[in-house]
Design goal:
The protein is of the alpha+beta class and 459 residues long. It has three domains: 202 residues, Multidrug efflux transporter AcrB transmembrane domain (Multidrug efflux transporter AcrB transmembrane fold, Up-down Bundle); 75 residues, 2-Layer Sandwich (Alpha-Beta Plaits), CATH 3.30.70.3400; 130 residues, 2-Layer Sandwich (Gyrase A, domain 2), CATH 3.30.1360.200. The chain is built from 13 helices and 15 strands. The strands form four sheets. The protein has a five-stranded mixed barrel with strand order 5-7-6-12-11. The protein starts with 7 loop residues before the first helix and ends in a 16-residue tail after the last helix.
């Protein structure tokens, strides 16, 4: 036991250690839950979709316009994936005119492509002529008309003039049809803002009963309803009667399609068209294999370090081993608490941290041994060893932390994953070396086991 009573600083050090250990055990609860339920996993560990999007015409824009356009696209895409329910998606700028989209856990790559790549330009246009089947041969009769197709491939001739756009909407939600002919079928209900509803009421009044109105999304006719007497009469009464009266339906719209369509309409239209420049799909089996190999590498490295420190320093090395365990709890707890995403590169950062943690303790231990060899008492040697090691440990870890910060700010996905775990590991390493290890040596009684062969007569 320690020779002196505990000071206030000692109690604070002990309390911080207990907080880290207890919080780590509570948050992790290993091995009672799988890794994916403990911490968020990146694309390379749980599978998913990686897309690189390229904005049409963005490369030719001035630098300021590029930045503004890309920022707007990222904002809209973030809103889409959030509203659609895709968790842990990473969307950020990737070069001057590209956007990187990582969607871990995406089970339907095609659905992800449609959600991300859809421009979502919603337009209301007057219908001139409608075909009966996809084989019908109809065409515009003037330059003011345009030939479009609905989702079933049926041709529809519409006016080029856009009567109303998606900017008039305030919301879009998935509903179940109330029409007795389509009971149970899903549709997307459109809610207009006040200004949009006023514009829509004006359009309905102008077209009149019996006229068809095409609802066009990205040049595909989603619906082409006939304006009935009831909706025209409602338009004459005012905008409130039409604010929540329009739907997009047709065919057997599935739940995912309806949800996706509502999400892109709520988020708004992308400022430019996009194309998928690169696409990578990672299956869950490959991700599971990466997790297994990554966890195995950590376990082997961890076990070898524990054995090495015990063999090299015997009971004195137990201090480094305890500090290493505390640091591992600190890193995993930090990843969970901050909602950080663990990637394969992040696992590499944890493995590197295992070595860095004991490296700091080795520097301190060797300094302590030097002080003990010159005849200082064990406790005095411990204190002198820490004083002489402080500058080296602080400088080394601070420079590494700066490097991790640079990687975090400017690096891509894998580099950011590595930087996050490395930064957490560095903070934990400094804490464990200068706080936890010192407390164990000075107050835990381990100062008695300094592995130094002293000259006879030295105490």
């Amino acid at each position: 036991m320690a020779q002196h009573s505990m000071t206030r600083a000692d109690w604070l050090r002990l309390g911080s250690m207990l907080v880290i250990v207890i919080a780590g055990i509570v948050l992790i609860t290993v091995p009672f839950r799988p890794v994916k339920d403990i911490v968020k996993l990146g694309l390379d560990l749980q599978g998913g979709v990686r897309l690189v999007l390229e904005g049409e015409g963005v490369a030719a824009m001035a630098a300021d316009a590029q930045t503004e356009t890309i920022s707007r696209m990222i904002e809209i895409l973030n809103n889409r994936v959030d509203q659609y329910g895709l968790a842990n998606a990473e969307i950020r700028r990737y070069g001057p005119d590209r956007i990187l989209v990582n969607i871990p856990g995406a089970t339907d790559p095609e659905e992800a492509r449609r959600l991300i790549g859809q421009t979502a330009v919603l337009e209301f246009r007057r219908v001139i002529e409608v075909g009966v089947s996809p084989t019908d041969d109809i065409s515009p009769s003037s330059s003011s008309q345009e030939l479009l197709y609905n989702k079933e491939g049926v041709p529809i001739v519409v006016d080029r003039e856009v009567l109303l756009t998606g900017a008039a909407l305030s919301n879009a939600t998935v509903r179940t049809s109330s029409d007795v002919r389509e009971v149970g079928k899903l549709q997307v209900g459109l809610t207009f803002s006040q200004e949009g509803a006023e514009q829509f009421a004006s359009v309905v009044r102008e077209l009149g009963t019996g006229q068809m109105l095409a609802i066009v999304l990205d040049d595909v006719v989603q619906s082409s309803p006939v304006l009935q007497d009831s909706i025209v009469a409602a338009a004459r009464e005012g905008w409130r009667s039409l604010q929540n009266s329009t739907t997009i339906s047709g065919g057997n719209m599935g739940a995912n399609e309806a949800k996706r369509l509502a999400a892109v309409l709520r988020a708004g239209a992308l400022p430019v068209s996009v194309r998928i420049a690169e696409e990578t799909s990672i299956g869950p089996s490959l991700g599971s294999d990466s997790i297994r190999r990554g966890m195995m590498s950590m376990a082997i490295g961890f076990a070898l370090i524990l054995v090495y420190m015990f063999v090299l320093y015997r009971r004195f090395g137990a201090v480094a081993n305890i500090a290493l365990i505390i640091n591992m709890l600190f890193i995993i707890s930090g990843l969970i608490a901050f909602g950080a995403v663990l990637t394969m590169a992040g696992i590499a950062g944890i493995v590197l941290t295992i070595g860095m943690t004991v490296d700091s303790n080795i520097i301190i231990f060797e300094r302590i041994k030097e002080e003990r060899r010159v005849g200082k008492s064990p406790l005095a040697a411990v204190r002198a060893g820490y004083e002489r090691s402080l500058a080296v440990i602080t400088d080394t870890n601070v420079t590494t932390l700066v490097t991790a910060g640079i990687l975090l700010l400017v690096g891509s996905g894998p580099f950011r994953g590595f930087a996050i775990t490395l930064a957490l590991g560095i903070v934990g390493t400094v804490y464990c070396a200068l706080v936890a290890s010192r407390f164990l040596l000075e107050r835990g009684g381990f100062w008695r086991f300094i592995p130094v062969r002293l000259p006879e007569g030295t105490k």
